[in-house]
């Protein structure tokens, strides 16, 4: 029987990320930087992270900017741990079921972000995108990193029943393609849609491989091999 000891598991028994390693932290910091690059970083701008897990991405963004960051997740233990571990004046955490975002969020945000979250909403993505628009300000923006279904590793995990069980995936989650999410965003009325192939750095690689993989990934992202990148970077605005 295959065992998966690299993941962090939520209170429902599903995998919601990877255990902290040097590679994972580097990967998350790079993703935070890509998200920050897509934002107008004026102090006081409001950022909502959907599915923040243990809170590290929200923490990095809050620590590098003066924006107000709210990390949210439906896993109560994750949120409790994040509140205890990451303390900044412009950072907060709250329990939020992103399937019911429009119903439970009373404030508006300038940005909604997430790392590996939209694919959890695969079968409810139309409703989720419309819900995001309702809680975004007039010129709000979404920025997400999602697994690329054309990556061989990702395809194996998501399409094979044995590996889905090993990875403790939720029944409804499914990785998708650049064209799939672009069409969904267009249908929901988002503008300035930009979906790019990004990142070849996996979270569990040995420390000595981190920098070489980053260098190689930067080259591969500009080559035809980019189509099998580990992730896609999704950006779109309401206006």
From TrEMBL:
Domain of life from the UniProt record: Bacteria
Organism annotation: Niastella koreensis
Gene3D superfamilies from the UniProt entry: Vaccinia Virus protein VP39
Regions that span the bilayer: none
Residue span(s) of domain Methyltransferase: 43-162
Name of the molecule in the record: Methyltransferase domain-containing protein
InterPro entries: Methyltranfer_dom, SAM-dependent_MTases_sf
Annotated signal peptide: none
One Pfam match: Methyltransf_31
């Amino acid at each position: 029987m295959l065992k998966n000891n690299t993941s962090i598991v939520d209170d429902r028994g599903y995998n919601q990320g990877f255990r902290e390693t040097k590679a994972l932290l580097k990967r998350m910091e790079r993703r935070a930087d890509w998200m920050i690059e897509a934002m107008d970083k004026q102090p006081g701008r409001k950022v909502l992270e959907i599915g923040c897990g243990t809170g590290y991405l929200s923490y990095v963004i809050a620590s590098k900017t003066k924006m107000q960051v709210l990390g949210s997740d439906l896993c109560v233990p994750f949120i409790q741990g994040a509140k205890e571990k990451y303390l900044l004046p412009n950072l907060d955490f709250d329990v939020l079921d992103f399937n019911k975002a429009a119903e439970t969020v009373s404030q508006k945000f300038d940005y909604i972000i997430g790392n590996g979250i939209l694919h959890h909403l695969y079968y409810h993505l139309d409703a989720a995108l419309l819900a995001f628009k309702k809680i975004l300000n007039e010129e709000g923006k979404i920025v997400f990193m999602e697994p690329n279904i054309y990556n061989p590793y990702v395809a194996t995990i998501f399409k094979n029943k044995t590996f889905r069980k090993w990875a403790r995936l939720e029944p409804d989650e499914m990785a998708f393609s650049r064209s799939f999410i672009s069409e969904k965003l267009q249908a929901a009325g988002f503008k300035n849609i930009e979906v790019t192939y990004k990142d070849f750095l996996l979270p569990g690689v040995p420390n000595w491989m981190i920098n070489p993989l980053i260098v190689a990934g930067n080259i591969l992202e500009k080559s035809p091999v980019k189509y099998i990148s580990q992730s896609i970077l999704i950006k779109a605005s309401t206006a």
